[in-house]
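Recap from last week: sequence in, structure out.
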Amino acid sequence: MDSTTRYNLPNIIVHADWSKDCHKRWAATGILNEDGYYTAKEPSQVKDMLGLLCEMRRASGSDGIILAGFDFPIGLPVKYAERAGIKDFPSFLQSSARGEWEDFYRVAEVADEICLERPFYPRCPGGTSINQLLSGLGLEKTEDLLRSCERPRPDRRAAAPLFWTMGAKQVGKAAIHGWKEVLAPGIEDEGLKMALWPFEGTLQELLKKGGIVIAETYPAEFYRQMGIRFPKSQPKTEHGKRSQEDRKSLAPIFINLCDRCDVKLSKELQNMVHGGFGPDKAGEDRFDAVIGLLGMINVIRGNQPSGDPVSQDIRMVEGWILGQIRGEHGKPGTIS
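Predicted structure tokens:
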């Protein structure tokens, strides 16, 4: 962000740690106070995210600003979009599941069912491969299934392809639910004034307009930006964000981040941070929900560039990850 830029501060910032499984969807919220600080509240399970956004919209008033982050892909690989004739992701999103796209969200069961209008695959494991997906979509290489922001970098492996729906790191099923149940109906509801970043403008432009601004996030990207490093793993033990003890060890970093970003933690969230976000398996989901919230506030405060892309393909079709500032083609550097 240019040093002269000042964002309109959202009244509410919410980050949703998403999953294909409803019990693993957690959202953390920050409320802007009159003193200019954000009060961060403990994360809670969210079964109806669109309903929550509607409540926030009413609570913030007609001139209110809500910034909502989701850690599922928002956008399409440009190579796929070129073959499918898609030039504008928000417009496509509104037409998805209708007409020629009525099977778009129906995951293909066998390779013969894969086509541009039905690109998600496979529904079940066994005898499936990325090559079948490439062949069905008429693409040449695995890289063609990735958006620019998902490609490998020196400090990060490539993400799982959007349309692949199998394996622990798959993101396809989460995207299907998020697009179908939250984004598509949200942008069609004129009363919500929902806009998708970066497709409909820069972050600055969209926040000036007010309403609900939707952005894609990636908690692991925020780890790097905010200096979060987990202790080295020990054999035969849970480690990293799955370990309550490892999460607990990061409490001082959380407190420093809050000081830097003018964030006050609610009493409940303070206890959660110092307690490592709890001993149950959902602890890592609560952790990522809060990390995402702080990462978004870090951008809003001007400590991290938003990453507004300039490339037409990325800005209109592929989208970008909030706060990611490497080159648009996977090269180190700022967005160009």
